[in-house]
Each structure stands twice: as structure tokens, then as C-alpha cells.
Specification:
- With 278 residues, the chain is mainly beta.
- The chain is built from four helices and 18 strands.
- 11% of the residues lie in helices and 50% in strands.
- The termini are far apart.
């Protein structure tokens, strides 16, 4: 039997409400694309209120929001599709990197900046619970259609309960060069603990000309839709689009960075009703 050293790593069992899960979760095959958008820094800071984190990549009054869409067809849990919204951040306390922009090119386990997953929606109810309980990710359940064919990307999500449209990201853009994938340093809040988890990746990304793509945000009440509207991303074109049809990764369990006050442990502050998960 052929052995792939990338996936030959120790795993351990984590107990969740849906049963035991082996971590790191091994993502062996999948389509994956990343869309980076410029957003107003004030809007992002409002989204990060009470998290103990602040925007990392800042240029004037602008910063970055990252929309990730994926279809994991072979993994150590059951296959699933997901859409996530994350923000590049640094901690407000402790060591502050001098140049967070440069840190992205260093090894993920040596970075002080990272990505805070503000919300995520998946088409697998079990994975909403796994992500929330192990990593503290705010997750919801949705119907997701995702298609990556060459230079064309089509992703649609609708609420699995109400049928409301949540978002649509679509378009085509010529692929003009390739870059190696970057591993990620992910921040999240689990109870009153700020945690950091590594997502190790490998492979190559295609870089697309971005002008042929556009994000349409629906009127649903899911957390991600609220956040995208709050960031004023409806109808916006991305700054950069990356894609790969050969994504592979290992998502490790998080380690506690620091304790935060229970009163500031909420990932965001919204008055709109959040969707209840089954």
C-alpha cells in the first residue's frame, strides 16, 4: 500500500455531541477557492468587537475579508461543502508583529497574525456541530451548490430551513499564473478561551483575473449573510481570486492562547435573530 507522508500523522479522538471525531481532520481531495475583498476597516472592527482581536492587514482605512468556498469529496469525516468568512487579525494583547503583511509568507506555526473565522455555513448538519464544539466556529446549515470548472466558479447557498437565498459567488476569470498554497493560522473562541489552530495545506493555487467575478448577498437571516451585508459586500467584485481542484489539508485541534473574560467571549454583536441549528 502506498503511503502518503502528508497524511501519516498521529490522530487522537475528541468527543462531541454526535460521537467521537479523529483530529486532525484529514482533507484528502477537494475543490477549493478563495476570494479576497477590500472592506472598510471600521466595518471590520465592528465585526471583531469583543473578540480581543483587531484587523491585521490594514492600508489606510481599508482591510481584507476572505470568502472561502470548498467541496471536500474525500476526507476523514463525511464529505461536505462549506462557505466561510474570515478576517486577517492580530491579538490586541501580547506580542504585536511589526509587519503582519509579511508574516503570511512565514511558516504558519511561526506567525503571530492569523485568520479569525467569523462565520461558516456547511451542507452537513453533523459538521456544524463538529466545527462549533471542537473549534468554536459559528456555523449554520445550508443547501450549497458549488462548481469549479477551469476558469469558471459558481457557488450558490440557500437556507435549508426557509429556502431563502444566502449568497451567490460566480463568474469567470483567466488563470494567468500559479502559486504554492499557504497554510493557515486560525483563531477562534471556545467558551472563554482564545484558541489557535493550524490548517496545514499543500498543492498549487491558480490565480484568476478577478474582474469577471461578483458576489451577490441574499436577504436571509443567517449569521454569514448578516455579516456580508454589514461589510457592504453585496454586488462587489473581489480583489483576488484563487482556486484549486486538488486541495489537500490537515485541520488540527486548537491550543489555548489566552483566557478572555466571559462577558467578551461572543464572536459578534447582532440584534437580528440567529438561525437555530437542529
Amino acid at each position: 500500500m502506498q503511503i502518503d507522508p502528508f497524511f501519516q500523522v498521529p490522530q487522537h479522538t475528541v468527543s462531541t455531541s454526535i460521537g467521537n471525531v479523529l483530529v486532525p481532520v484529514l482533507l484528502k481531495e477537494g475543490d477549493y477557492n478563495i476570494a479576497l475583498f477590500t472592506v472598510d476597516r471600521d466595518r471590520t472592527q465592528d465585526l471583531l468587537k469583543n473578540t480581543g482581536m483587531a484587523p491585521a492587514w490594514v492600508l489606510g482605512n481599508k482591510t481584507i475579508a476572505v470568502l472561502v468556498m470548498a467541496d471536500f469529496t474525500v476526507c476523514s469525516v463525511r464529505p461536505y461543502r462549506m462557505i466561510s468568512l474570515s478576517l486577517p487579525v492580530t491579538r490586541q494583547q501580547g506580542f504585536q508583529p511589526i509587519a503582519p503583511w509579511k508574516e503570511v509568507f512565514s511558516r504558519a506555526d511561526q506567525r503571530h497574525m492569523g485568520f479569525y473565522l467569523a462565520s461558516s455555513t456547511v451542507d452537513n448538519v453533523q459538521m456544524t456541530k463538529v466545527g462549533a464544539e471542537i473549534w468554536g466556529h459559528p456555523k449554520s446549515h445550508a443547501n450549497i451548490e458549488y462548481d469549479l470548472k477551469g476558469s469558471h466558479i459558481e457557488c450558490n447557498a440557500s437556507c435549508s430551513y426557509s429556502g431563502e437565498d444566502l449568497l451567490r459567488f460566480s463568474g469567470s476569470g483567466m488563470r494567468f499564473f500559479r502559486i504554492p498554497s499557504l497554510s493557515y493560522n486560525m483563531f477562534s473562541l471556545v467558551g472563554n478561551q482564545l484558541q489557535r489552530a493550524l490548517l496545514n495545506t499543500r498543492g498549487m493555487y491558480n490565480v484568476h483575473l478577478p474582474m469577471g467575478f461578483r458576489l451577490q448577498v441574499g436577504n436571509g437571516n443567517q449569521l454569514m449573510t448578516q455579516q456580508l451585508r454589514k461589510l457592504n459586500l453585496h454586488g462587489k467584485r473581489p480583489l483576488i481570486v484563487l482556486s484549486t481542484s486538488q486541495f489537500q489539508g490537515r485541520y488540527n485541534e486548537g491550543a489555548t492562547v489566552e483566557q478572555v473574560e466571559p462577558t467578551i467571549a461572543a464572536p459578534c454583536n447582532y440584534n437580528a435573530k440567529r438561525e437555530l441549528e437542529p
